[in-house]
Please model this.
Amino acid sequence: MDNDCLFCKIANGYLPSHKVYEDDICIAFLDVNPTSKGHTLVLPKKHTLNYLTCEKNILNHVLDVAQAVGQNMITNLGASGINIISNVGKDAGQSVMHFHVHVIPRYSSDGLNLSFKPKQITDGELLKICDSLKK
Ligand code: 5GP
Ligand code: ZN
Model:
């Protein structure tokens, strides 16, 4: 546990949260500033920085739990869609530096806009990027 980490403190019971699920490896609790009704965070109890640094077996478990939480939102909250997001790094909007997955229930006419703004790109640029990523 990292004593300076907010989510370590919540996950290990030193700070309160509205828990919706907990086991030995991970915890899911309501976001204190929800972007929609039921916005939940799923995270490992063991400290790790982000999605990219998380041990594979723990990551798989966190994603399994995020799936179950999402299914539960459809069944028990009446959500009609879900956004699953994990921000990696400040530039991507990560504000708490302990890996977490946002499970955001969506409702018709909820007014949330998480859509990507399309940018123009040439076929040559797409090819170059594709070559870099294939390395
Ligand atoms: P990030 O910006 O790192 O992707 O997401 C961090 C999330 O944690 C934010 O949506 C924020 O509202 C939430 N959050 C920050 N502090 C607390 C807290 O003390 N308790 C809970 N439940 N959520 C928090
Ligand atoms: Zn932590």
